[in-house]
Structures are given as structure tokens and as C-alpha cells.
Amino acid sequence: MADLPSRQGSGIARILSHPSHGNLAVALLARNPSTLSSTHSNLKSTSPGSTIETFPTDTSPDSLTKAFSAIRSHPSFKGLKLSVAVYSVKHSSKKPFMEETHDDFTNSLKEYVGGAMAFAQESLKLFFEHHGKDDLNATNGTKKGTLIFTGTLGALRANSEYGAYGAGRAGVRQLAQSLAREFSVKGIHVVHTIANGAISDEEGEAQMVGKKMSAEAVGRTYLWLAQQGPDLWTHELDMRPAQEKF
After folding, report:
1. Per residue in 105-120, is it b (16+ CB within 10 Å) or e — as a string?
2. Measured in whole angstroms, how far is the alpha carbon of residue 216 from the centre of its chain?
3. Residue 167 to residue 104: CA distance in whole angstroms
4. How does residue 2 score in pLDDT terms, banded at 50, 70 and 90?
5. Mind listing the pLDDT tens digit for each residue in 82-138?
6. Is the pLDDT of residue 177 over 60?
7. For residues 58 and 31, is the Cβ–Cβ distance under 8 A?
């Protein structure tokens, strides 16, 4: 289950859904219906035999609640339990600070940080609905699932004129830390990744020589995170192509 921009979404969802990799039924959420349609067509041809359904939604609480309700009742997911939820939203804001308005600044935070909060709540409700609320001690260490937030370097440091962007990215990073401390004992693995560099759904020369990240490589990393047991959980992971400066 993910809200993914098109250049990342296809590769990540392909790995999670492909029968030879994750073999998971995937609910793909996105704000742009045309992006959803093209991504779904791409996945049907490149991940044959997989189960992938699409749900248009923005990051508002009402819209996400409706999307999760539709997922619950969709026949493709009947009898299945949520195991991985990914919040990966393209969101940027660049403006000289003295030209920034209070409304634009707070709306940026509401869309991105508020969206992460609403997505996390809906995901946690579904994790507990499917797996119960007992903690790890009561379930002999049974993991309920993995909640992943895809961040960027802006979560750690913000460049000039990226005040709203940095505040939002840092806010989601802190949200992930708080959720990890609160819900790890309940068997929910919370991860914040930092994607430092371009991600593209292709396997070309740029990926081969380490100038760009492959979306499928990100997907394989997310699948690895989802497969971690309670004896070792990665919380924060820095992802970059080999030639990315840092």
C-alpha cells in the first residue's frame, strides 16, 4: 500500500508485487488519476500474475479514510492482511523566505506532514484490525507489519529558500521516530528512509555507474526492510547512488 510518484511507484510496486520477489497484493494510492492509470498499465505488463489495484486520493484525512475503506472492501484483498505500508509523496516548495506567506507555509505542512499523519493512522488501524493489538511479548515476537516513510536529505538539512520544504521533511522524520518508539513494542516496524539522489524506474547507464538510483533497487530495499524480524529492525536508512555527493 503506497502513495508513490510515478517515477518511483512503478519500480517499487513491481518488486513488492512480483511473484518472484515480494508476491504481495498491492494497493497503489496516488493523487493524480492519470498517473495511477499509466502506472497500473505498466505494472500489469511488467509484473504478470500480480495483484495490483489503484485508489485515487489526496493527502487529506477524509480522502485517505475513503481510500482505506475502499481497500478494506475490495474483493482483490479479501482474506489478506496488511503487511507493508509506504508513504512516499513528492512534495517540494522553494521560495525566498520574505516572499513566503503564512498560508502557503502552513498549507505545505498540512499537505505533507498532515498527510503522513493521516496515512499513518489509517495504516495502524488496519494493522491492528488485521493482526490484533497484543504486544510482542504476548505474541511470541510476531511482527504485524512495516510502515515506511520515504524522506529526502531535506529532513536533515534545508537549503536556502527551502524553509517550508525542510520543515515538512523534518516533521515527518520526527513523526516516524515518535511512532517507532510508541509502536515497536506492538510489533509495528516503523522506518524512515532518506533518498539522497534521483530515483528513476529504469536500468540504464546512469544506474549502472551509480549516478541515479533504480526504483527497483529501492523496492528491493523496502522488501528487505519488511522482511526484518524483531531481533533487528532498521529505523533510519540513508539511500544514495554511488556517485551522489554527501
Report:
1. beebbebbbbbbbbbb
2. 14
3. 13
4. low
5. 999 999 998 888 999 999 999 999 999 999 999 999 999 999 999 999 999 999 999
6. yes
7. yes
Does the model's pTM come out above 0.85?
A: yes
d(CA 211, CA 198): 8
Q: Are 63 and 51 in contact (CB under 8 A)?
A: no
Cα 138 from Cα 186, distance rounded (Å): 9
Sign of torsion over alpha carbons 74, 201, 176, 224: positive
pLDDT of 133-169, one tens digit each? Answer: 999 999 999 999 999 999 999 999 999 999 999 999 9
Nearest CA to 196 out of 229, 233, 237, 148 is that of 237
Nearest-5° Cα angle at 121, 222 to 152: 45
Separation of alpha carbons 4 and 13, rounded Å = 9
Contacts of residue 194, defined as CB under 8 A and 6 or more positions apart, other chains included, come to 151, 152, 153, 155, 156, 236, 237, 238, 239
